[in-house]
Amino acid sequence: MRILFITSKLNFKTAGGSIEELDLLMQTLQNLGNDVKTITAFSASNVILEKRPYEVIEEQITSKRLFGIAWQLYKILKKYEKMADIFHIDGHIFLYGAGLYKLLGGRIPVAAYFNYYLMCWDDTAISMALQPKENIFVRAKKKIRWLIEKYIGMPLANRIDVFAFVSPNLKTVYEDFGLRKDPNTFVIGDLIDFGKIMLENGISEDTYLNRNKRAGPFLLFYSSRMIRGKGFDLLLHGFARVRNKENFKMVLTGTGPEAETLKKIAKDLRIEKYVEFPGWVSWPRLLQYNKEADIYIQVGWKPEGTSISQLYAMAFGVPSILPGGGGLEWQAKDTAIYVKNGAHDDLARAIEKLAGDYDLRAELSRNCYKRIREDSMNYQKQIPIWNEKLKSLI
């Protein structure tokens, strides 16, 4: 098959795990015998550090508006029809342009891959930070966009031939908004090469067990972009309720608009001497933190969301504390203990429980490797299934 991906950008420096998993998907489909090319639609944002094994074609969508992006994406699809047997799009950005292409007689099947939410949805992130105040005109504009996407956009998007989602939770949210419930829809999972990560970092299934501590201090670790809803504030307030704080060191890496606010929160809670904010760290240093961490903690964010950072913790065998009932619990299963987002005392007791139970940490670490061996977490099993679904469209 000639599979032509259309993605927003390829930024291998700062764009995070979504680029890593897309790159793995494209390379694996190529290794399965397909002719894979990718078009970057916002190519000014590309940061391609090394030549990729697939061809990269740079286009530039100039519009920042919903209809403009859809129309320019439609024109890109028409331009490259003769090069493709399948168009493979970033679902959350290009679903309406792809639907328009099919509505206007586009003859090439389109597959949409969803790993993110729609911008028109209400902010469901759990956070102590208040939403910015908006005047009536901004609220009206957002409501109009929501109505347009639901009642015009979704019927367009439903013309796309097949969908794939990184979690069943995200799939449900899209279907609740109006995307069709199709038995052929595939939950592909977040795509990550656990074996490669372990090999390159000298990690075996016994590495964490061999360094598992019977006494502190215990290193609590979390890394993400410091924006509203990522859970850093919830984590700080929960940690402030931990007894015997001298038994812990918390490292929170990343930067963003909330960074200074978070440092102030730590100071106001009088926990700044226990919390380290190293800011943005290099990739080797980030991997080293995973090697050193005793417990990975991620709370907040959106209930349907998953996390590449938490998958790395699993690759390193690090037990986690996560919010229950959402995408993270589906992803991590028995590798973590679960709390309710925003329940600070529950989070504090979970930290104390996991730090105080050597055997529980060992059990959760062993469960990391049981989980990543499951077919639903194995990209070498999942991508061939997706490949067959793509073939069936031709």
TrEMBL record:
InterPro entries linked: Glyco_trans_1
Domain of life: Bacteria
Domain Glycosyl transferase family, chain residue ranges per copy: 212-371
Pfam families xrefs: Glycos_transf_1 (PF00534)
CDD domains: GT4_PimA-like
Molecular-function GO terms, alphabetical: glycosyltransferase activity
The protein, known as: Glycosyl transferase family 1 domain-containing protein
Native organism: Candidatus Giovannonibacteria bacterium RIFCSPLOWO2_01_FULL_46_32
Lineage: Bacteria, Candidatus Giovannoniibacteriota
